[in-house]
Amino acid sequence: MADVAPRLNRFAEQLLGAPLPVRIRAWDGSQAGPPGAPALVVRNRRALRRLLWKPGELGLARAWVAGDLDIEGDIYVALDLLSGSVWERGEDARGLAEALRDPEVRAAVRGLVKLAGLPLPPAPPREEVRRGRHLHTRRTDRRAISHHYDVGNDFYEIVLGPSMVYSCAYWGSPDGTLEAAQHDKLDLICRKLGLTPGGRLLDVGCGWGSMAIHAAREYGVQVVGVTLSQEQAAYARKRVADEGLTDKVEIRVQDYRDVTDGPFEAISSIGMAEHVGAERYLEYADQLYRLLKPGGRLLNHQIARRPQRDESAYEIDEFIDAYVFPDGELAPIGTTVTQLERAGFEVRDVESIREHYALTLRRWVAGLEADWASAVNLTSPGRARVWRLYMAACAVSFERNRIGVNQVLAVRTPESGDSGMPLRARTWGA
């Protein structure tokens, strides 16, 4: 009798105290749940064992990456429906113990154990990284960056497209091209920084060299780009040579903390500060302040999370930490601004471009899905699944205002108080 899905649906409702908002399709072919809704596909009993041995988000993530769970239908709709329920409801040991006091919950767990058959816990997928004890040392940062970025430049070409820019684009219209929106983002940053021919720009976390190339080619500046990724650096150097810009752009494999050849007129940090960590953020801001000339500008482009009433209760996202950005941390925008000001910067402008990142992520997901077989061959099925889930889930989070992204323009204002900023800065010279 094909009855696994109805049983799972009933267990889920007992555990959550509310109906599951998506359908369930189980390995025996049975289905249950709201007609027409996307389906959570449970491919085997191992998916249940992963959830029982590691309740909450990490167990779900392991099942997804291993291919034991899947989503059938619109992934964005499914993730939106699941938000705040089983997909994002991690239970720590105390929370689970409290939940098990409910007879219905205990009955549901017993039913799941019986259905799963409970031998030893399945090994985590090989794509998982364990969080280290010592965060944000030079060694652990190199390891974290290598895990995320040294996946293969060919894979990133599939996801990012020809622009090879791995940060939020700047859209004039949702119908525009990704390449045009990334060009406009880079140009906006150059204008905010007030780049002029002959000046020096430090691009912290330079990625595949797109910002460095754009600034040197379009604004005539001398650029030093630093990254911890060997693969990114090799790719960026080739692009620089192909553009005939080797006299203007230097790409280094170097920790930003080890840059000593300032001062620079401008510094861009685009999608890098998320890797710094809360304990190291003031050190990061201090270092960039020291590297700027008086009157120099910093453009800090960074993802932000919503603040919590009790910040001490904030927990790292288990899926992101284990599979996407090991040791990465998001801070509220207010915290970022405060830390920059503590380092001595005068913050002159903060621009939220949250909706722009949702559009960008949807384009990246479309690129990945359009060439899925190649992406799998270049990495692994698990890695491709990590990226699809991560980018789609982040798109929903940006759309629902659970996370945001901001460009913060700050100046190392000299003692004279002359910031060098125009009276109506928001035109940015456009």
From TrEMBL:
Any Pfam family: CMAS
Gene Ontology biological process: lipid biosynthetic process; methylation
Active site: C394
Name of the protein this chain belongs to: Methyltransferase domain-containing protein
Signal sequence, renumbered to the chain: none
Classification via CDD domains: AdoMet_MTases
UniProt record similarity statement: Belongs to the CFA/CMAS family.
InterPro entries in UniProt: CFA/CMAS, CMAS, MeTfrase_dom, SAM-dependent_MTases_sf
Keywords tagged on the record: Lipid metabolism, Methyltransferase, S-adenosyl-L-methionine, Transferase
Keyword Ribosomal protein: no
GO molecular function term, any single one: methyltransferase activity
Residue stretches making up the Polyketide synthase-like methyltransferase domain: 155-396
